[in-house]
Amino acid sequence: MLIKTSRIIYLLLIVFVASIYLPKYYWMKFEKNIRNPMVYFSPVKKDFLIRGQNINELYYVDEKGKHYDRDQFEELMPLLNYRQLVLDNKLPDSLNGEPLLMDKIRINNIMLKINPDEIDFKTIQLFPMLESKSGRVRLEMPDDFFRITNRFEFIDCATNKIDEKKSACFSTYLGVKKFAFPAKLIAGNPTTKKAFDEGYFVLDAKNNLFHIKMVKGKPFCVNTNIPDSLDVAYMKIMEMPLMEFYGLMITRQGDVYFISYDNYKLIKLPLKDYDITKDVFALMGDQFYRTVSLVNSQSIRTVVTDRKYRVVDTYKQTWKNNSELRAGIAASYLFPFTLKLNDENSSYSNFYFQFSGSNALIGSIIFASITFVILRKRQISLQKGWFDLLLVLITGVFGFIAVSLVKNIDKYLE
Amino acid sequence: MYSALFYKEWLKVRWAVFGLTILSLLVLTYIALDLAYYVEFMTAVGFWGNVILLGMPFFTDIRYTPLLSGIIVAIVQFSPEMNLSRLKLTLHLPVEENKLLFQMISVGLLLLVLLFLIITILLWIIIGIYFPVEVVRFALNSLALWLLGGIAAYFLTSAIILEPVWTRRLILIPVALGFIDLFYSSGNPHIQLTLFFIITSVVAALLISYSGYHFKRGIK
Fold this sequence. Notes:
The complex is a heterodimer. Chain A is an alpha+beta fold. Chain A folds into 3 domains: 2-32 and 327-413, no CATH class; 38-107, no CATH class; 121-276, no CATH class. Chain A is built from 9 helices and 25 strands. In chain A, helix 7 (326-334) crosses helix 8 and helix 8 (359-377) packs across helix 9 (382-405). The mean pLDDT of chain A is 92. Chain B has one domain (2-217). Helix content of chain B is 84%, strand content 0%. The chains are: A alpha+beta, B mainly alpha.
């Protein structure tokens, strides 16, 4: 009995290892680098421009299929390329009736990208609380990091001990502001490489969002009064000189909100079907428009809004990803499933199964038939070989390799 | 009976275990010195920032020590048995063969677990001097997989050595390599994955009885 179990474990181990490495090697040989296009909205033409890439060259094309060279593209996207245009002396004085001023262009140009692996990630939950009004030009790293467990605690880096005085001061103040400990989510932009500091946005135990920062050594804490019904998955805080919003908030359902400087009012972006586990969120903003693209391995969906976030235009393009190309179709017959321990859309090592669907059944049946013949040749009856057969039927080529390599020893067990 | 067997196994592996303990202590000392050096030259604040905000690795030197330990203990414990088929004698004792094999590997396992426990506790203390519990937890989470990889390597190396037929060894070796590599290529493991690796690294012990079975029966 033990020997039989050992053999089954051995078979399963081979299946496990094979289902990771065989598809991996297969794709190392056959995977095509599919470069997804970038979609821009020209404030000059009021139309989409798509930047694609063939093997080695970039090309620019509009929705009607008309091609542009790089210089033309830059002129059609004057705000994105204002520095080049200034150098070439080609920046127009005004656009859409508004004057084009360098400072205004710079401050209005925003770029923001959020990858799925950024959302599916929990950093070490310790953060530096920067002084937001130090009176200095440059921001400075504090000497301590904080955590928010059952109270607000500062830990001094040099001694690795809790600064009781400062901790008590913040804890008490947060308590007064009705902050419910512990924190569920802490989001900030802990770097000194920014123009100013807005501290942190913290979701408390009761799902209320608080804005917490340090002003002249004293705690600052405001309940933003954002509805506690939002199922927040991720927040990205980014101090921008534009001061239109603190950052954005993404729910598990794929709704995206800006947290605006206007009394923390939420601005909902007009997005549809944002899958936070697969789509890359990319935001480009300029003086006139906001362009939001959701990109995954086979499509890009773009929404353009005006500065009041009313939809101006939408664009969608799809292409075939690797699993739909010839190599992918062949793989779906060969491998009933693929297992990966690391996935580009997550920062965790975990089980990432991908099932190939009904095609794999054909492969599995072929392998099971061969196994049947092999078992007959090895003179093993179905009564004894049923597990081998079933394994091959379920796991296809992986099980077949396992069964071929590990002899059935049942006949010795009489 | 078990104590006699334990003593016999202990005689075989004691120098290896002693050497591996020294090696682990040296590596841990290196890590401790390294941490002190970083604090001195980056300042504590700068070092914290690099580790906590930028994910700078600072304890990875210990990574392959458990793997090496698992392989070496298996080699010193089982390769003498295979010389002149000495294991045959052991297996002729009036004890059930599988029980005997499992008792043998339980000795190696016990010593490895002790060694790994020492590594864990010392690393905990070293990191705990400079960092809060959050960072310690993060480090131990990564360490867990490396230690489990050491256990799996011990079992699989033993199974490879005990396997009497070279062709079957040639099958077992790549499977073992592929499997053990997974413990070392998975960064930031999800708790689910860690649990799976705990189960599989223990279950891998069964492969030894499979090899042992071949050995005892002389199955070619």
